[in-house]
Structures are given as structure tokens and as C-alpha cells.
Amino acid sequence: MQQLVQQGVPRLIAFDLDGTLVDSAPDLANAVNATLAELKLPEYHQDQVRGWIGNGAQVLIKRALAGDIKGEVPAELLEKVYPTFLKYYAEHLCVDSVLYSGVKDTLQALKQSGIALACITNKPSQFTLPLLEQLGVAEFFDYVACGNTFSEKKPHPMPLLQVAEHFNVEPEQALMVGDSINDMQAAIAAGFKSVCVDYGYAGEHDIYTMGADVIISEFSQLNEFLQKAA
Q1: Is the confidence at residue 63, as pLDDT, over 60?
Q2: What is the pLDDT at residue 226?
Q3: pLDDT tens string 65-104
Q4: Which of 55, 170, 178, 195 is buried deepest, with most CB atoms within 10 A?
Q5: CA distances (Å), 146 to each of 119, 143, 153, 165, 188, in order?
Q6: Catalytic-residue membership of 16
Q7: 212: how many CB neighbours lie within 10 A of its CB?
Q8: Residue 196 per-residue DSSP state
Q9: Spelled out in words, what is the top-level CATH class assigned to the domain 24-92?
Q10: At what angle do helices 181-190 and 158-166 cross, to 10 degrees?
Q11: Which of 16, 179, 183, 213 is catalytic?
């Protein structure tokens, strides 16, 4: 934390969504299992599905069909099944999904401080925007970039760089807060500073080797960082 404090308060903070702001695994797991049930395929425990989250909805359902994080399935099967998953998830988007502890209060404090806030997620916009609204945090974000906003998704740096350009902020004046290897790789490639939360969906990756500048266990620790950096 000290190394970030010395560089002062960032002008832009970008946040990942699933596993960083929101524990969406319960509803995603239910959508995955409802899809698999229609195909009479084995269903998975929520903890298993948690490890597959982070690369967008299509990759999630592909992993579920394969039963493995690196698995592959025929393109025609994925094309046939994916709409079923999308329909179920859209209809049950925010049943059991919740904000992580301290998220709303921290976002409110950051917003009041005048820092530009963005949400940069690989989640499609038809899910991202309603989810932020239903959880009561949409108002805090000045920009929301979804998995279908740009031609590239994280871990590509494009979304981060485009958002920084939107705010006329240099990458070194920006901070990415996320939970996965995609977030950290995107931050490094874009030249953003990075904070990794240790409670999210890191999957098979060790958060201590992802290259994050800082690792935190509570979302509210961001407030502590800003108070020290001010």
C-alpha cells in the first residue's frame, strides 16, 4: 500500500464487477445449472462455478459444458446452448447476488472525493447495467465499459486505455481494482496501478503472483489508501 500512497490520489479508479464489487456466483451458478439440466447434463456446485467466472458469459457456459476451466466444446453446441443460459440468467439476474462488504459506502466516499469512477467488466451490457441498478450502485459510476463495449476485452488493455482517454487521464494516474489475472494483466499492459482483492474469483491463479501493486482483503481498505495518499 505504501508504494501507492507515495504516488498520491489517482484521478481515475476503474473497478471490475464480478468478484470485486459483487458476489454474483450464486445467480450465475443457478443459470449454469438450469442450462445443464435442460440438456440432462451433470450440474455443478456453486464453488466449482466460481472458479470459472471472469472471462465473460460465453466462456463461463463453455467451461460448464466441458466441465473444465480449459475445456473446449463443439462450436455448434455452444451456439445452441448459449441463448438458453442468457435467457435464464436475464430472468434471474439479481436473486442472490450481493455487494461485498463495504462496497457501497466506499464507492460513495470515492465519488464524493471527486475521483472519476468507472466499471470495466467482461460481463455483457445486458446484464451489467441492470445488475448495477438493482444493487443500487449505478449512480456512482461515470463510465461503464462492458464485455461488448469495445472490440477487445480484458486482459487486453484496450478497455482501460479507452476509459482513461475518455477522462483525459494518463495511465499512470489511474488505478485498476480487480480480483482476477485478467484484471491485473490488463492493468499492467495499460500502465495502470493495480489493487487485487483476495476474496474474488481468481480461479486457478495465485493472487500473489499476478503482479498486483497491492492486495487487500476488505474493499473498505481503499478508503484507508486514499486518506493516506491525500
Answers
A1: yes
A2: 75
A3: 999 988 899 999 999 999 999 999 999 999 999 999 999 9
A4: 178
A5: 8, 10, 8, 16, 19
A6: yes
A7: 24
A8: E
A9: mainly alpha
A10: 60
A11: 16
